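Homework help board

Subject: predicted structure for assignment chain

Our instructor gave us this sequence and asked us to write out the predicted structure in token form, then describe one feature. I got the tokens but I'm not sure how to describe them. Can anyone check?
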Amino acid sequence: MNVYRNIFAFLFLCSVSFSVNAQQAIVLRTTSETSDKLRFSIWTETSEIDLGQSVTVNYSVENKSKKSFYLVREEKQRIRLFGENMLAEAPSALPTNHGDFDFTFIQIQPKKKAFGQVVIPKEKFENEGVIPITIGFGYVENIKGIDRKLNKGEDPFPLRSELEKRIKRLYLGDLGVNVK
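My token output:
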């Protein structure tokens, strides 16, 4: 019994000493693949910025499947800070502000890639330190009936509801930037 207690004490002391001296690793690139065989990657070119600078997060979406998918993009990118965490939100068809149906669809054909960028404005960085960044994506397989703009005076609810039924979301995180 003493052997187990000594091993436990040793492991505990090791973990305490490592956590006290540990620094947060800054991740520059992360990748995730969905069950639909879409591979999402996000990355930054730098690990440090000065307070008052914007950050560009690059992304790619590779379609490794045999069918087309559509990346859903919202005209107005929503970027929020939750405590120390930065979130560029995934497109949401939920009528948060009962606004227009301001979505576009980028086709990703089988065995092809799509590329883009999300720019996090300098105004979003208010403090120094390592800021974790998460990027949200949305995609659909079928855009029939929802790939259009609203007519004048048309209620956006039916289109938003249909998109909400079809959309799949993915949040890709662990990127970091050290604001100094």
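Reply (TA_rk): Your tokens look well-formed. For the description, you could write something like this. DSSP finds two helices and eleven strands in the chain. That's the kind of observation they're looking for.
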